[in-house]
# Entry
Amino acid sequence: MKIGEIEVHTLRTGEIRLDGGAMFGVVPRVLWEKKMPPDEWHRIGMTMNVLLVRAPGCTLLVDTGAGDKEDDSFRSMYGLGEPRLFEALAFHGLEREDIDVVLNSHLHFDHAGGNTRRDESGRVVPNFPKARYFVQRREFEDAIHTHERNKASYFEENFKPLFDSGQMALLDGETEVAPGITAVPLPGHTMGMQGVLLESKGDTGLFLADCVPTSHHVPYPWIMAYDLHPTVTLETKKRVLPKAAKDGWVLFFEHDPHVPSAFIEQDARGRFHVYPIQRWGADPTEDAPGAAP
# Structure
């Protein structure tokens, strides 16, 4: 896909299963289960979709999935599939050393786990040795100083070694990290969460991270119970989505197992309609490795 002169590929880094009720908050089960049927443990199946962005002079990743550092018990609890990030990068002819920038939307384990890996000695090292990592300062501070409501989502091994070594830089608000590629605050899920705005030759795309994790979360009330500040999420959606609809932005959904990107339209009654641009197959082996068709 092209956003003007910016080349964008959606990569499917693996599967994850989370509680359906938590994923849809106040929305009644009778509504959400028709769209995303749960398994016997009430979990819905999702993917961890990241962006590979190629712009002049810069090869960039937006988020890195869950990685491979966690044990089998953890992976079973969250239904984590086999990590596929590097398989997906290889499909596009890339290796670890080819990534210049990693933009973390936020530092939850399913978004930042692939930032680092364990080497043969068990030491945590960067997965992308030549990359500069970026995250919002507010997000980093919240990840370091956790509380009972958020500590299960943050693992310091995914980010603190990068900060300590100077490889991770902290942003303060909206920041252009490369020409046409801008980190933009999307608070609510966490107060420090950011999306990524892509702008080139009059075209625009927005990676929504967990502000709108799937295409089913586009309607205003469909907000996760996982969000620490759901009314702030609502404000963010009301600020962003009407503009995206009016101006024809491409929207990228990080956890949608079927629709990684779409356009939206808003009708006269204020309701949004989703028009998929890409679709995943139900079986991850149906598509080229990690790449949207």
